Amino acid sequence: MNLDSTFLSVNISVSPFSTVDRKKRPRNDRRIQECAMSIQRTFQEAIMGHLHSRTEIVISLHVLAQDGGFFAACINATSLALIDAGVPMYDYVSACSTALYDSISPLLDPNNAEESDLPFLTVATIGKTEKVSMLLLESKVPLDRLESLIAVTISGCHSLRDQMDRQVRKHGHLRITKRSE
Amino acid sequence: MPKRKDISLNERQFILSLLKDSQRLDGRAIDQFRKVDLKFGDSLGHAEVQLGKTRLVVRVSAEVSKPYEDRPYEGTFIITTDVSSMASPLFENNRSSDDEMLMTRLIEKAIRRSNALDLESLCIVAGKSCWMIRADVHYLSYDGGLVDASCIGVIAALMHFRRPDTSIDGDQTIIHSVEERVPVPLSILHVPICVTFSFFKVDEVPSSTENPVAAIPGSGQSANGVPTADDSAILVIDATAQEEALRHSELTITINKNRDICQIAKPGGYSVEALTILECANKAYKIATNITDLIYRRLKEDESKRNAGNLVPLTAENER
Amino acid sequence: MPVIAISRPETVYGGVSGGNRKLKRANGGDEEDVDGVDELEYEDADSGSDAEMRDLDDDDGDANDNDKRSGFGSSTKGSSLVTPGELITEDTMWMRGHGTFSQDEKTFSSVAGTITRVNKLLSVTPLRGRYQPVIGDHVIGRITEVGNKRWKVDIGGNQDAALLLGSVNLPGGVLRRKSESDELQMRQFLKEGDLLNAEVQALFSDGGASLHTRSLRYGKLRNGMLVQVPSSLIIRLRTQLYRLPGGVDMILGINGYIWLSKSSKVAADVSITRLEETSGLEIYSDTNEEINTSTRENIARYANCIRALAFKEVGVNETRLIAAYEASLAYASAGDLIEDEVKAILAAEALAADRSDE
């Protein structure tokens, strides 16, 4: 463990009723564990950990309903929660997924039905850059479609970053007006 | 990918500054894959891979079992990875660290999820019996690139393996012994190859010529807040154990000869330009073609050795 | 070329045209990078929905965004909102304080909050977050651990604060020397779970705080109850001690912990000279005094009023709390105040008190 930096620990719990077919998920689902680890490593780079040395930040994610974009939603939620908690970060971390329809067309933010039939990839970027912090692709995609897929996903991430920023501002303004002087 | 190996500051600085000058401790170019040494054992489905100092053995076995209830027409396929302290004292026995979990997931996604093995061909009687194929990976020595090496090992062992032939007589399933009928090879749909790329932050790497103190942290950082070095992240292919311990992020691409990407995983860490990832994918494709050819070559050599006494090569393969 | 449009209830982004998007390497290093991203060849098919999203935005969002960026240096207005990754200024004259970071000589925000400027020091105060101790803060805390010559106190910060045995008043007056037997019977003065009010005496380099209770104002708390609100709802004032109508005393801890208790007979500000006579053993007493029913009801009423303000994220101060309390008298029992609608009404009354003040 690095003593000069904040230690992030991520717990994800998926409720059994989050999918259409209710089923009990094993606690140590590899996919969920992998997701938690990726979130931890993504945010370890995004937060200014050196400011809170010898500290642990525990991120608990509870998934209530799943309709595609599981991983991306987890990352975006974490991003907003960290901002609300006042943890210093370099920028928003925004994530988004894109499916590939008919081996040709990128399909932004697929839902559950689309995800189950199409290959899709999830990308997380820090701020409005072209830099990929996290990338996950679990099904077959032709090499030549990769570029357009990543490009669409990144633009989706940027759009989400703006949307999140707008919400943070909205709430921020609300809070400022109600503050005691 | 073991838990962090502690590397002395001198060693660290030496390796990093070498990398900055595109040099590596073992004399390779930074985008050079280590030489893959692939050997097959006496029994079918036994493959030994040596990648630099990384060594592993894969054993494939088959037994008849019941298919999963939700997939009656498919056989089952399990990959087990046994990372023990035999490979390196960094690994603990019977306890898988996060990194080992990621590694197992990666191998699983690369081979099992990408449908490299045709599971439907393993069905004997729908819903009743099917073949269960096991691939057991044993690591003998560790020097980085476990995922890449295991992927080569597993797929080569699967291609080398022959399962006993079966036939159905009424409601009886007959499994023919090796003496009775020539065993059949597994139906491999494609050959996925994993290539792992490691990235190093440039601004943390002191140049070998400069005084390390003079290297200003913050230079080479990008505009919008994120401290990333644009085009300057050092990309290293097939890192050794030391490099793996020092890298700032990794990217594993699984690709086959048909230009299909089976899987990409970059689990967080230091950010990398999207275009770099595309470059990586293209590099991975070239490496994958070479390795695939190597596997086919080795398989052929092995076969000709086995058939040395026969005038007509024995085969159970149908000409399709 | 097929165009697929997805519109999902949670997130609204519209059609994305297929296939031909290309990534372009942002020309690295120079200051055009921020805009370089926008210049990428995303021939946005979703520009329509982009505009749509902008409509959802309330006017103060993006609007002041622009004039802040351009005219920051000359602006004198106090509270402008920034979010993580936002460029605050390109001017190099500012010193960077908390909540900021720099890149290529430019200053960016690292938290969502308001810009504060003290002389040349530029910092961003987060809107929410854990309490960050500042020397001199009057805080309320709870003992979590009794350690070697010190107590650990939860003050709602990133880490527990330390209260050294040497920084408390022990029975017998200020001049009393701490002996070894005191070290052994620390638990008799303060034990795990005890509440106390204290002042932040010093800060450690890692952000931890050291407390002291060497004044009669500070010390162990009894005869009341604790209410916890986010520390961002409380601002630093000259005094944090209030005597509220209805025979209730309030200590407004800067860390968001609020202590409501029965009014004490002794005036809150005892002069330092009387310290010695009054610090008997009873300052570490654990037993509550007799509290009559109406005082109990009042304490509960104040507690619920504070919760109502916190519920609506209204900052807590004396005027607002008294206004909310008076409004709450319309309800017969303090228990009636826990309904969400009632909370909203009380919070609105409290805010109205500000306006009538001005």
UniProtKB/TrEMBL annotation, chain A:
Query: What's any GO biological process attached to this entry?
Result: U1 snRNA 3'-end processing
Q: Check the record and name the Pfam families matching this protein.
A: RNase_PH, RNase_PH_C
Q: Where is the Exoribonuclease phosphorolytic domain?
A: 7-88, 91-153
* GO CC annotations on file: chromatin; cytoplasmic exosome (RNase complex); nuclear exosome (RNase complex); nucleolus
InterPro entries assigned: ExoRNase_PH_dom1, ExoRNase_PH_dom2, ExoRNase_PH_dom2_sf, PNPase/RNase_PH_dom_sf, Ribosomal_Su5_D2-typ_SF, RNase_PH
Which Gene Ontology molecular function entries are recorded, alphabetically?
RNA binding
To which protein family does this belong?
Belongs to the RNase PH family.
- Protein's name in the database: Ski6p
**Which lineage is the organism of this entry classified under, starting from the top rank?**
Eukaryota, Fungi, Dikarya, Ascomycota, Saccharomycotina
Q: Give the gene symbol.
A: SKI6
From TrEMBL, chain B:
Q: Which Gene3D superfamilies match?
A: GHMP Kinase, N-terminal domain
| Superkingdom of origin organism | Eukaryota
**Molecular function (GO) terms listed?**
mRNA 3'-UTR AU-rich region binding
Any Pfam family hit? RNase_PH
- Fetch the InterPro entries from UniProt: ExoRNase_PH_dom1 (IPR001247), ExoRNase_PH_dom2 (IPR015847), ExoRNase_PH_dom2_sf (IPR036345), Exosome_comp_Rrp42_subfam (IPR050590), PNPase/RNase_PH_dom_sf (IPR027408), Ribosomal_Su5_D2-typ_SF (IPR020568), Rrp45 (IPR033100)
One biological process term from GO is: nuclear mRNA surveillance
User: Where does the protein principally reside?
Assistant: cytoplasm
Give the CC-aspect GO terms. cytoplasmic exosome (RNase complex); nuclear exosome (RNase complex); nucleolus
Q: Which CDD domains match?
A: RNase_PH_RRP45 (cd11368)
Which cellular compartments is it found in? Cytoplasm; Nucleus, Nucleolus
Q: Locate the Exoribonuclease phosphorolytic domain: which residues?
A: 32-164, 232-286
UniProt entry keywords in alphabetical sequence:
Cytoplasm, Exosome, Nucleus, RNA-binding, rRNA processing
The UniProt family comment states: Belongs to the RNase PH family.
This protein's name: Exosome complex component RRP45
Automatic annotation (TrEMBL), chain C:
Provide this UniProt record's keywords sorted from A to Z: Exosome, Nucleus, RNA-binding, rRNA processing
From what superkingdom does this record's organism come? Eukaryota
Query: By its UniProt entry, which Pfam families does this protein fall under?
Result: ECR1_N (PF14382), KH_6 (PF15985), S1_RRP4 (PF21266)
Gene Ontology MF terms in the entry = RNA binding
Q: Where is the composition biased (Acidic residues)?
A: 29-64
RRP4 S1 domain ranges (all copies) = 130-201
Q: Under which name does UniProt file this protein?
A: Rrp4p
Q: Which family does it belong to?
A: Belongs to the RRP4 family.
Any one GO CC term of this protein is:
cytoplasmic exosome (RNase complex)
Q: Which gene encodes it?
A: RRP4
Biased composition, class Polar residues, residue ranges: 72-82
Subcellular location field: Nucleus
Q: Does the keyword rRNA processing apply?
A: yes
The family database entries (InterPro entries) matched by this protein are listed as: Exosome_cplx_N_dom, Exosome_RNA_bind1/RRP40/RRP4, KH_dom_type_1, KH_dom_type_1_sf, NA-bd_OB-fold, S1_RRP4
Species name for this entry? Sugiyamaella lignohabitans
